[in-house]
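Readers of this paper often ask what the protein records in our data store actually look like. Below, we set out a record of this kind in full and without editing:
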Amino acid sequence: MQWTLVIPLKALTRAKSRLSDTAADGLRPGLALAFAQDTVAAALACAAVTDVAVVTDDVLAGRELAALGARIVPDEPAGGLNAALAHGASLVRSQSPGSPLAALNADLPALRPLELARVLDAATEFPRAFLADAAGTGTTLLTASADRELLPAFGPDSRTRHRASGAVELPLEAVDSVRQDVDTGDDLRAALALGVGPRTAAAVANLNVA
């Protein structure tokens, strides 16, 4: 099965505010872009992925991610994360009605294509499925088969809300790179321990994240 991924990305100037204890204001937009670049590059390298649609209105991010091969979808609703995902999913479905969809976080700088493929393969067994984040309260990936709506409910405690919506939690092990999103300094250190992509590695080279 070939998947289309929908990745939402807010304006870089507003991204990653919770990294303020690790990176100064002027550095966080570059970190957010590097996270997204490494995420998109890994997703496009996954054999189970046929297309990546990034929903963003950030001009720089759109240009850089398009250069990697992503399709850029303007965030017309401008109503936050779930509205952006619903909009991106609707556009993808209008153009490819038979495509299974997966919503993926943009802050997975350690993402491994083979681990992503394992998660997507497991998700093919269910109409809707999700993968919890490393913290155990959030969600990094939500899937919907070709005949189902995505129904994203990301945000605080999204693990509980996605489960309540009828999505099946995927109890997979050894897919740490798909679970490790980065919101805080501790998250960044955990991602670095897993091994991040080249753009994130370059972006953090001058940060004290020990």
